[in-house]
From TrEMBL:
Tree of life domain: Eukaryota
Coiled coil segments of this chain: 222-291, 320-380
Biased composition (Basic and acidic residues): 113-124
Region (Disordered): 1-131
Name of this protein: Uncharacterized protein
Originating species: Kalmanozyma brasiliensis (strain GHG001) (Yeast)
Low complexity composition-biased segments: 11-23
Composition skew (Polar residues), residue ranges: 95-109
Length: 466
């Protein structure tokens, strides 16, 4: 903004210096060339010839060559340089009535068009209203300096010359004043619009005299914008970090999910295998229960058979005792028969022979009957031995089953039980063998006694015959 103000001041100085007209020594008044940097075609004013006026009175104190033709240096506009023109405020205080004719007015308008060119955009010079208004004070000061210099120059001239210069100057710049007025009104409208926009869009009350409020507000807004941009960049960096962390966590969760799925599938397979094994064991348990029921039935039947066998053994023992008693009785009778035979051999007579023979025959019948009884008893004993062996086998099988099902018994107890069973079995077999041997011995004795008695009868019968 300061650079723009300086450019405006330079343009104002060049324009103000070009306003002052000088009079040549020969009486020709020449206006210098006026240049405006805002014109696109960069046209220049040609020196305008004024009408030759004979001065009424020239002051003797001024030399002829006091005023030379002043030509403003031509300054070409650069393409990159912003166009600048003198602000209309520099001519705001002038209230000079125009005394030029209609022709002079048209000529001034033509010269204005040639000097300033046609403005394509009346708002082109108001691109930065704040920069123009910030330089109003310096422009006013420069305008006062130019007016002071002009007054000093006019005071140095004579009155007719001064009037002629003023008349021509006013005619020359009549069109420029209208254009400057229009530009000033446009600038005022732009300033009003800018202040209205600033009041509506910002918390400021206006632009201010030196635009400090607007520049401060814009500086604050720029600082806030930069701060917000930095914070946004930080937030974007944080979001990027969070995104990377979330992607890493998603990858980790995906791996954990895959591992859990594999573990769950493995557990499902193990569960299926366990269920199949449970079904197999359930079927095996059902089969074992059926076998156990059958075993219990067999045990009950074996117990019944054992009870019957015990009853039969008891009956056989009782019968054996009876047989033993009968054998003893038979033995006693045989002894009596032998004693009777001995007595009959010593002093028997024929009368008593027949009763003795009858007794011998009866004793032989008894011996034959006893032999048949012994044979029957031998057969019964053999059958009892077979039945007892079968019962013992069933009992051993039941004991083995009971031992197999009894999980609380120890191996030592099982061995002791087996030993007791073997001892009992051996004692039973020993008793049976003893009984069998005793019966056989009794039979052998009976047979021997029978043979002796038969031999005695044979010996007695020849003696009696003799």
């Amino acid at each position: 903004m300061r650079k723009k103000g300086r450019k405006s001041q330079e343009a104002t100085k060049s324009a103000a210096s070009a306003v002052v007209a000088t009079e040549h020594a020969g009486g020709q008044i020449v206006s210098p060339k006026l240049t405006s940097p805002i014109l696109k075609d960069q046209r220049q004013f040609a020196p305008t010839k004024a009408e030759e006026v004979s001065p009424r009175s020239s002051p003797p104190s001024l030399p002829e060559d006091a005023f030379e033709v002043v030509q403003a240096p031509v300054r070409r506009a650069i393409a990159t340089e912003k166009p600048s023109r003198p602000p209309p405020s520099a001519w705001n205080g002038r209230k000079v009535t125009s005394t030029a004719s209609v022709s002079n007015t048209s000529d001034a308008a033509d010269s204005s068009e040639l000097g300033h060119g046609r403005l394509e955009d009346p708002r082109g010079g108001a691109e930065s209203v704040a920069s123009c208004h910030s330089n109003f004070s310096s422009i006013s000061n420069r305008r006062r300096e130019v007016l002071a210099d002009k007054e000093a120059l006019l005071n140095a001239l004579s009155e007719p010359s001064r009037q002629e210069v003023l008349r021509r100057t006013e005619g020359r710049f009549a069109g420029a004043f209208g254009e400057v007025a229009r530009a000033f009104r446009q600038l005022q409208a732009d300033k009003t619009m800018l202040e209205q926009i600033v009041r509506e869009k910002t918390p400021l009350s206006g632009v201010g005299d030196t635009n400090e409020m607007l520049s401060g507000h814009l500086s604050k807004m720029n600082a806030k914008l930069e701060q917000n941009g930095a914070e946004i960049r930080k937030l974007l960096d944080l979001l990027e970090q969070q995104r990377e962390v979330m992607e890493q966590m998603m990858a980790t969760h995906q791996l954990e999910k895959d591992a859990y799925e594999d573990e769950v599938s493995h557990l499902h397979r193990v569960l299926d295998e366990a269920e199949a094994e449970v079904d197999h064991h359930r079927a095996h348990v059902l089969k074992l229960n059926e076998e156990l029921v059958k075993a219990h039935t067999g045990i009950a039947q074996a117990n019944a058979d054992a009870t019957r066998a015990r009853t039969m053994l008891t009956e056989e023992a009782r019968k054996r005792e009876k047989v033993v008693q009968l054998l003893r009785q038979a033995k006693d009778r045989l002894r009596e028969v032998e004693s009777d035979n001995d007595r009959s051999v010593d002093g028997a007579d024929v009368e008593r022979l027949s009763p003795e023979v009858h007794r011998a025959s009866s004793s032989e019948n008894e011996v034959a009957q006893l032999r048949r009884m012994l044979e029957d008893r031998d057969q019964e004993i053999a059958s009892l031995r077979l039945s007892h062996a079968d019962a013992a086998m069933h009992h051993d099988a039941d004991d083995s089953l009971s031992i197999g099902h009894d999980s609380t018994s120890t191996p030592a107890e099982e061995i002791a039980r087996l030993r007791a069973q073997l001892t009992e079995q051996r004692s039973r077999e020993k008793q049976i063998r003893t009984a069998y041997v005793s019966v056989r011995e009794e039979l052998r004795k009976v047979n021997l006694e029978r043979r002796r008695s038969s031999a005695g009868r044979l010996t007695l019968s020849p003696g009696r015959d003799a």
